[in-house]
C-alpha cells in the first residue's frame, strides 16, 4: 500500500451491521451508516508551474479543507478554501496558482483546461457516505438489514473506491497522451538539493554516525508515517533545505555547536 505524502483519514471499515452517526436530539443515533468509500487520490494541479513542492512558498493554492490547508501552509503556501466553481473562477482570473483536487473532479468541473502542471503526490481523498434514517433502519427486519449490508460496508468501499480509481487513472492516462499538461511524478522529486519530499542521509560529526531523515510536514510527524521525520519549518529542516551532497551546516544543540554533512539525497519511496 502506498504511503501518501499527505495522510488524510480514509474511513475504510468493515461493519458487522451498521454504525451510529452521533446522537440525535433525543439522545439516540440519528442515522445508520450503510457504507462509505473514497474517491481516487487527489493531486496538486498548478496554473503556475513549480519544480517541486518546496517551490510552493508564497503561492496561493486551493485547499479542500482544514487538513489540506495545514499541509499547504507547512510548505509556505497561502491556502484558500474554495468550492470547485470558485476554484475555476480564481484560476481563470489568475488569482490562484494551483489547487488540490482529484482527477475526476478536474474533468467534471472542466478544470483541466485551466492548469499546465500536475504534481502526482497522493494528497488524500474525498470520502462519501451512504446513510439511512435510524428509525427507518430499525424498522427493517434483520433479514432486510443483512441483505442491505451485503452491498454496504467493505463491499461498498471496494466497489466505490475501485470505480473512482479506475476512472481517475483513465483521465490521467488521457492527459498524458495529450501531452499539454506536465506531469511531475512522485519519483521525479528533485534530488540535486534538499527539498520537501526528500530522504536525506546526514553525518553527525559529534556522534560519528550517519542517519536518514525524511523532510516532510507536521501531519506526517504526528502520524508517525515515516521514521525520523523532520518537519519543513523546524530549525533542522530549515538548516538542510537547499543543501547539496557534500555540503555541511552547524546547529547549536543543547548549547553545543554540532557539525553535520549531507551524504546523500533521495526521493522518498511511496512503497
Task: Write the topology of this structure.
Elements: E1 19-20, E2 31-38, E3 43-46, E4 60-63, H1 66-74, E5 78-81, H2 84-93, E6 98-101, H3 103-108, E7 117-119, E8 127-133, H4 134-139, H5 142-150, H6 153-178, E9 182-184, E10 198-204, E11 209-216, H7 218-223, E12 229-231, H8 235-240, E13 248-253, E14 256-267
Structure explained in plain terms:
The chain has 271 residues and is of the alpha/beta class. It has two domains: 169 residues, 3-Layer(aba) Sandwich (D-Maltodextrin-Binding Protein, domain 2); 79 residues, Transcription elongation factor, GreA/GreB, C-terminal domain (Chitinase A, domain 3). Helices cover 29% and strands 28% of the residues. The strands form three sheets. Strands 5-4-6-3-7-9 form a six-stranded mixed sheet. It starts with 18 loop residues before the first strand and ends with a strand.
Can you give me a brief rundown of this structure?
It contains eight helices and 14 strands. The longest helix is centred in the middle third of the chain and has 26 residues.
Jot down its keywords:
single chain, 271 residues, alpha/beta, D-Maltodextrin-Binding Protein, domain 2, Chitinase A, domain 3, 2 domains, six-stranded mixed β-sheet, five-stranded mixed β-sheet, 14 strands, 29% helix, 28% strand, disordered N terminus
